[in-house]
Structure formats: C-alpha cells, structure tokens
C-alpha cells in the first residue's frame, strides 16, 4: 500500500477509517511511518501508516 499518510503534517485534522467513534483527531507528529494523533473522543493514538490510511478532514467536513 502506498503511504498516503506521508503528506500529513502536525496540526492537520484526520479521521481513522476503522474507528469513526474516535471523532476528529489532530496530527501531533509524523515520523518514520508512525503518525501520532490526538483524537477528540479517544485521546492520543500512534498509527502505523503502513497499515492504516488516515482520512484528512477539512473545515467543511467537521
């Protein structure tokens, strides 16, 4: 799978496709294929970007 998470930078908003109940999260860091996201309803989670493609959220998507 191509790593589409490589474009994510700190401050960007994302959703986890497999856990919509987590709500919108804010990217904290993206280092070496590991994306740390602080989710509104689930707290801080580290995502392995080789396994999960996070979905960017734009202001109109909130």
Describe the protein:
There is one protein chain. With about 60 residues, the chain is mostly beta strands. The chain is about 0% helix and about 40% strand. It has strands spanning about 15, 25-30, 35-40, 45-50, 55. The N and C termini lie far apart (about 25 Å).
In summary, what is this structure?
This protein is 0% helix and 40% strand. The protein is mainly β and 62 residues long.
Write out key terms for the chains shown.
single chain; 62 residues; mainly beta; five-stranded antiparallel β-sheet; 5 strands; globular; DUF3553; DUF3553 domain-containing protein
Classify the secondary structure makeup into a structural class: mainly beta
Main sheet properties: 5 strands, antiparallel
Please tell me how large the radius of gyration is.
10 Å
Strand content: 35-45%
Number of helices: 0
The backbone outline, from C-alpha atoms, is globular
Oligomer: single chain
Query: In which range does the helix fraction lie?
Result: under 10%
The SSE order reads EEEEE
Distance between the termini: 27 Å
Report the average pLDDT across residues: 90
What is the count of β-strands? 5
Strand order of the largest sheet: 4-3-2-1-5
pLDDT < 50 stretches? none
Layout of helices and strands, plus pairs?
Elements: E1 13-15, E2 25-31, E3 34-39, E4 43-48, E5 55-57
Antiparallel strand pairs: 1-2, 1-5, 2-3, 3-4
């Amino acid at each position: 799978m191509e790593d589409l998470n490589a474009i994510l930078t700190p401050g960007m908003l994302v959703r986890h496709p497999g856990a919509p109940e987590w709500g919108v999260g804010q990217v904290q860091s993206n280092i070496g294929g590991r994306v740390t996201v602080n989710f509104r309803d689930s707290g801080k989670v580290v995502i392995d970007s080789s396994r999960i493609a996070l979905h960017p959220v734009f202001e109109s998507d909130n």
